[in-house]
Give the backbone structure.
Amino acid sequence: MESYDALLASITPTTGETRTILDPATGTAVGEAPVHTVEDLERAIAAAQAAQPAWAALGHDARSAALLKAADAVERSAEELAHLLSREQGKPLNGPNARFEVGACAAWLRAAAATPLDPETVVDDGETRAELHYRPIGVVGAIGPWNWPMMITIWQIAPALRMGNAVVVKPSEYTPLSVLALAKVLNEELPEGLLTVVSGGRDVGARLAEHPAIGKVMFTGSTATGKAIIKSSADTVKRLTLELGGNDAGIVLPDADPKAIAEGLFWGAFINTGQTCAALKRLYVHDSLYEAVCSELAAVAAAMPMGNGLDEANVLGPLQNRQQYDIVAKLVDAARDSGARILLGGNPDDNQPGNFYPTTLVADIDNSNPLVAEEQFGPALPIIRYSTVDEAVAKANALDVGLGASVWSSNLDEARDVAARLQAGTVWINKHGAVDPRIPFGGAKQSGYGLEFGVEGLKALGVPQIING
């Protein structure tokens, strides 16, 4: 285990162009990130190609053992990684934030190692025998986001490595240090060249997506960028897993208990200060308990401290970047100007350093308002009235995205019936956004395609092969 300063120094380049990464809570410098080039990418891909065959030849058991050692390495450096993540991304150390994210990295590595994937006998009738196997793809390109930079990187690389692939990672330009540090720790237990982070700009990402040596691209980010990756990957017919934008709806049924669900609603919406793809971003509440839900949710939200992530008391932090802050502020201002009722927040302190936008709840808002119709990706939740369940389902399904959704009810059978009508890759009941390394996760409509996690996630990182005979 290294000290925080030693870990940061180990990823700080001594030559080449660098870029200063700023703490979104204070505006002060966190460290210097390398600005890698397309030439650096080419070298990383060549090294991955060289390392991959021997890694694939080890077999599942040996690769899984290496992943378990990598998980141990993450845990040995957990506090240093969490400290860097908090400073660079802004999320607090405590709550479902930085320490939680680093812990999830170890958990997902272990889950990828432990998930069985045996050959499947498709037909065996005495005359014909056919088995389905999954072979390594080769080199996988992983392009990650800035909101959960370490955890989502692990979601991409853990199954890729388990299946015998090498990986080249392109992190977000907003949070490269976290991913560089994570890879440095992982590489203590992995063969040289197998996992490389290339911290470059859009030109690097574009080349990774089109590169003929990359057999698959995994991408988490905006729908617009996902569409660009689809186009650039077409000439080489790459396999793709795309987890794209979402604008998740939650429906509170008339029989729900407002006080009992208030904290679950809060964390469903405001985990990582709302900067989560599968966060609750539109809440539909029946007329009969609308005011009670608003009141209970506002009471929970008002009690959640926001501030610098290194302060152990805080559970909410800043927006990671000013561009996202401006999007949230613009949407809330437009909602206020339209006559919506601001229950809480909506009043940022312009004299405060950092990208802090207060926890904001907006009631009596029209379903067509931009705060409802557009993904805010921040700490502002619109709460929309409905009169019939059919109306709520129609409104929830009206958008062209469908990553997640949730139903809140005291009657599980009724909740499951409503859940089955929602157009989303995952529908949670009496919770929102809970992911599990054993349970497949993916989007519907323009929220992307392909599955991650569990045995389906492993299969997505392999090439299916039938052996017939």
